[in-house]
Amino acid sequence: MIWSRFNTFEGIPCPTALGDVTLVVQVIPSLLVLSCVLLLAAFIRHSLRVDGFSNKCVFITGCDSGFGNLLARRLDRKGLRVIAACLTEKGASDLSAAASPALKTLMLDVTDSESIRRAAEFVSREVGERGLWGLVNNAGRSVPIGPTDWMQLEDFTKVLDVNLIGVIDVTLQFLPLLKKAQGRVVNVWGVEAFSDSLRRDMQHFGIKVSIIEPGFFKTGVTQLDLIEADLRRLWTRLPQDMLVMITFICFYLSDVKAQEFSMGIFCCPDIAKVTRCMEHALTARFPRTRYSAGWDAKLFWIPLSYLPSFVSDFNAAYFLCVTVFMLD
Question: Mind telling me which residue stretches traverse the membrane in this protein (predicted)?
Answer without folding.
Answer: 23-44
